[in-house]
Structure formats: structure tokens, C-alpha cells
Amino acid sequence: MTGKINIQLFYIVSASFLLINLIGIVNNFYYVNFLPLILAIALFGIFSMDKLMLMTVFATPLSVSFTELLGHRISPDLSMPAEPMLICILILFTIKIIRGYKPDTKIMRHPITIVIILQLIWILFASLSSTMFSI
């Protein structure tokens, strides 16, 4: 019985993706083709955070800015796909912390972590005392 339900679910998901893709192509919105990739990355983030982090490490040197992709300047200029993946990792980690996850204290006491935290505090202090906050 579950095999029949899985096949039906597969057909429903495939047909809906084809319909969404067809509507996107007809309306000259070709970014719909990235939907399976985005869904796979989201599933990695939910079920296996370490694989999402490894994918981010792999994708960072291959990142391309929106300005280079679209040909005109937009604000904010993101590096695709590394920065959205980093934002997703940050959001997922924040949700884990809120739900009661306790990070390892060894990581928080590591000298490199302490230096990074001090640098971030310094950047915050420097940007708050700056006359132009957006730069």
C-alpha cells in the first residue's frame, strides 16, 4: 500500500513541477529551474547540517555576484550561492539555539573563536561610531 502511495506522490510532485516550470518558461522566468536545487539545499539544511556546511565551503570559491549575473547594479549585491546558504545556516542555527540546543563549550573557548568574536565586536563598535552607517 505504501509503495502505491509513494508512486502517486512521485507523480503528483513531478506533474506539479512540470506545470510550475511550464508557467515559468511561458512568462520568461527561467529561474524556476533552480527550484530542485534550492529544495535539495533546504533538505540538507534540515536533515544534515554538516553536509550543508560542506556544500557552502565548496560553493564559496565558485560564487558569482548578482551584478555579474544580471548585468546591472542591484542592492544588496549578493554572491550566489554562498551568501544565501550562509544566511540559511545562520537562521537554522538560531532556530536550534532557541529550541534548546547547547553548542559545545570547547568551540566557544577556542582561541580562533575568541579572536573572531573580538573582531566582530570591533566592527560593530566602529560602525556605530561611524558617520556613514551603510558603508
Structure description:
This protein is mostly helical. Helix content is 69%, strand content 3%. The chain has seven helices and two strands, in the order H-H-H-E-H-E-H-H-H. A two-stranded antiparallel sheet has the order 1-2. The chain is flat, with a radius of gyration of 20 Å. The N and C termini lie far apart (60 Å).
Short description:
It is built from seven helices and two strands.
Q: Give the N-terminus to C-terminus distance in angstroms.
A: 60 Å
Helix content: 55-70%
Q: How many extended strands?
A: 2
Strand content: under 5%
How many H/I helices?
Answer: 7
The residue-averaged pLDDT reads 85
Rounded radius of gyration (Å): 20 Å
* Uncertain runs: none
Net shape: flat
Biggest sheet, strands in spatial order?
1-2
What class, by secondary structure content? mainly alpha
The run of helices and strands is: HHHEHEHHH
Provide the fold topology.
Elements: H1 2-26, H2 35-47, H3 49-59, E1 64-65, H4 66-70, E2 79-80, H5 82-98, H6 105-108, H7 111-128
Antiparallel strand pairs: 1-2
Task: List its salient traits.
single chain, two-stranded antiparallel ribbon, mainly alpha, 135 residues, 7 helices
